[in-house]
Amino acid sequence: MDIFIDQFFNIDIMRKSLPLLFKGLWMTLQLCSAVILLGLIGGLFVALGNMSERRWLRWISIGYTDLFRALPPLVLLIFIYAGLPFAGINISPFAAVVIAFLLNNSSYYAEVYRAGLISVAKGQWEAAESTGLSPAQTLIHVVLPQAVRNVLPDLLSNTVEVVKLTSLASVISLSELLYNAGMARSVTYNASPLVLAALFYLVLLWPLVRLVSHFQRRLAA
Amino acid sequence: MANRPMLEIVSLEKRFGPNTILKKIDLKVTEGELVFVIGPSGSGKSTMLRCCNRLEEPTSGDIIVDGRNIMAGTRRDLDRMRLQIGMVFQGFHLYPHMSVLKNVTLAQRKALKRSKTEADARAMDMLEQVGMAHKADAYPGELSGGQQQRVAIARSLALDPKVMLFDEPTSALDPELVGSVLKVMKDLKSKGMTMVVVSHEMGFARETADRVIFMDGGVVVEQGTPDEIFGAPKAERTRAFLSRVSG
């Protein structure tokens, strides 16, 4: 029992690794902000392309969502970070992670938006446009607020996935939360920093997961 | 100016694939006139109405509102011209995430660029006119169908349209709520609004319409005053339809 506590819940080691872990957490938060923000914006445009009346635009966006949902994000990440340099394209680890996960995640966001946009009755478009609103104004003021409300749990779920996904960045030695915890583990020969990192993820994500359930129940009611 | 044409439909044609829904329709509606359109389902009456503001894109033909052809020009021109053509739908289509007041001010603010004060004042006037001012802060989900439809009418009226199109405005309402909507439409007519109404409310047509149009198979079969159409229909198809709907 003592070994268990000493190996996983060693308070002393946890305290010592705290600064390093906070540094990693900060990096994780930066990654998440970039991927989530750009993903939410990019996903919307991809979804709109998906529903466009122009066939070529539809095809491009369907190809995009199919490709990047089918490709494993880790394969994408390693290709961008370690593959592209062979073509003379060098990308910083941070940018590589953002690009790889953005491609992956905007595809998922796009699918969620699409479901939301479809869920808004066609009559809403017609009513708004019959009052002289442009298609963009109709989208922004009438359709999108309803669409987002209808798929809020799915948008949030996807956001939770993004946060978890960023831990893969440790593979290319980007010093985010998991990578720094691994560093602390190898320096101290103790697993407590990993447990602490897991707690950080939990604190970050548990409220979000709760929120998803809350919205799901509210929508079902 | 009693005979000024407010809405002209000129050889309007609408095809869906191999099916011709509207076959070279011509119709002239003068200022202040109420034209009532009847016909069996699938006759093309709703499609004709929806072509008048290009919610349905005509295959060919012209739609002229107060002298201006809405088939010409850019998308922005169309948005601007739609402000002059109010439309009321069978399903109301109020915005469920906005209060009644916001429903009526949205297009005023965004399309007409009115100030908030001006739009709010105008909205309250219109809600007053349709008897819904007391519900300005309510949400559409809290209203009955008849109340929602009256708000929808106010939403259109707030933009000062020159023509109002009604697409079966009472068909989705419980019978006891129909009267309140028809009353608002009657008021509107008495104030001189030019109106085209697709509906099955024959009693309303007899009382209020200047002209009744019977459509079938994508053409105007017959038109005349309510007395002529309901009292002495000439065409066999009109007679058959009227005897069916009056049971």
Automatic annotation (TrEMBL), chain A:
Q: Name one GO cellular component term.
A: ATP-binding cassette (ABC) transporter complex
Protein name per UniProt = Amino acid ABC transporter permease
Starting at the broadest rank, the lineage of the source organism is: Bacteria, Pseudomonadati, Pseudomonadota, Alphaproteobacteria, Hyphomicrobiales
**Annotated keywords:** Amino-acid transport, Cell membrane, Membrane, Transmembrane, Transmembrane helix, Transport
GO terms (molecular function) for this protein are: transmembrane transporter activity
Q: What's its membrane topology?
A: Multi-pass membrane protein
Its function, per the record, reads: Part of the binding-protein-dependent transport system for glutamine; probably responsible for the translocation of the substrate across the membrane.
Concerning InterPro entries, the annotation shows: AA_ABC_transptr_permease_3TM, ArtM/GltK/GlnP/TcyL/YhdX-like, MetI-like, MetI-like_sf
What is the scientific name of the source organism? Aliirhizobium smilacinae
List the Pfam families. BPD_transp_1 (PF00528)
What transmembrane ranges does the database entry give? 24-49, 70-103, 187-209
Q: Which CDD domains match?
A: TM_PBP2 (cd06261)
Q: Taking every annotated instance into account, which residue ranges of this chain make up the domain ABC transmembrane type-1?
A: 25-213
Query: Can you cite a GO biological process for this protein?
Result: amino acid transport
Q: Which PANTHER family match?
A: GLUTAMINE TRANSPORT SYSTEM PERMEASE PROTEIN GLNP, MEMBRANE COMPONENT OF AMINO ACID ABC TRANSPORTER
Compartments where found: Cell inner membrane; Cell membrane
Location, primary (coarse class): membrane
